[in-house]
Amino acid sequence: MDFKPLSVLVTGSSGFIGRHVVRHLHEEGHKITALDHMPPTEPLPDGVPFYQCDIRDGLLPNRSFDAVVHLAALAGVRPSIHDPIGYEFTNVIGTIRLLDFCRRMEIPAFVFASSSSVYGPDTPLPAREDSQPNPCSPYSLTKLHGEQWGQLYARLHGLRFLALRFFSVWDSCHDRNASDPTLPWKPSADGSRRASRSSSTATAASAG
Question: Which of 5, 9, 79, 108 is most buried by a 10 A CB count?
């Protein structure tokens, strides 16, 4: 089957995961548009346009895409406890604005960056997709609500929706972690570098 490049809007493109997604999809031959409220922290691949805007405002590119990869969010469990309204507005209202953008522009597919924190602290690991969510922070609750809104748009409007429940995400090329850049490395028994906490397994669950 012939390869067909997709046009993909990546939100949160200046973030830790977003930079990798933009680079990887571009290397695969897809047509990427990057979007973030912060300027890129590294040069974007040649030919990748960048929109600096805030998803909360709904001022999105006036064009359609084959898919949206939605990575933009306020992250962190502890900070969310002190700013629940800010997290709700960014992570839930911002996500709804993007979902409705897909409806209006007839964009067929939406990939949502959720979080393993929706499971809560008592879920046995490795977690399963059918494990019962039990969010214990404003951040994790906003991620679960984002999943539910995506599932609702899938039912109402036929959107192909996929939620990925990321655990701690690591970059083998940098001494830092997507969720906590201050977390130190420590060598493992096999000589590879590993995070100094047990929740660093690179596991993802999908919900749709």
Answer: 9
Instruction: Find the mean pLDDT for residues 49-55.
Output: 94
**3-class SS letters over 20-83:** HHHHHHHHCCCEEEEEECCCCCCCCCCCCCEEECCHHHCCCCCCCCCEEEECCCCCCHHHHHHC
Q: Where do the domains of the chain lie, and which CATH numbers do they carry?
A: 7-207 (3.40.50.720)
Per-residue CA distances from 34 to 23, 87, 91, 117, 134 (Å): 10, 22, 18, 26, 33
From the candidates 51, 87, 119, 139, give the one annotated as an active-site residue: 139
To the query of whether residue 139 is one of the catalytic residues in this protein, the response is yes
Q: What is the pLDDT of residues 61-115, one digit of tens each?
A: 999 999 999 999 999 999 999 999 999 999 999 999 999 999 999 999 999 999 9
Distance CA 41, CA 180 (A): 17
Residue 27 scores a pLDDT above 50: yes
If phi > 0 it is left, if psi is from -120 to 50 it is alpha, else beta; for residue 158 that is left
User: pTM for the whole thing?
Assistant: 0.82
Q: Which phi and psi angles does 101 have, rounded to 5°?
A: -60, -45
Report the greatest alpha carbon distance in the chain: 52
The answer to whether the peptide bond before residue 61 is cis (omega within 30 degrees of 0) is no
Give the pLDDT mean for 114-141. Answer: 89
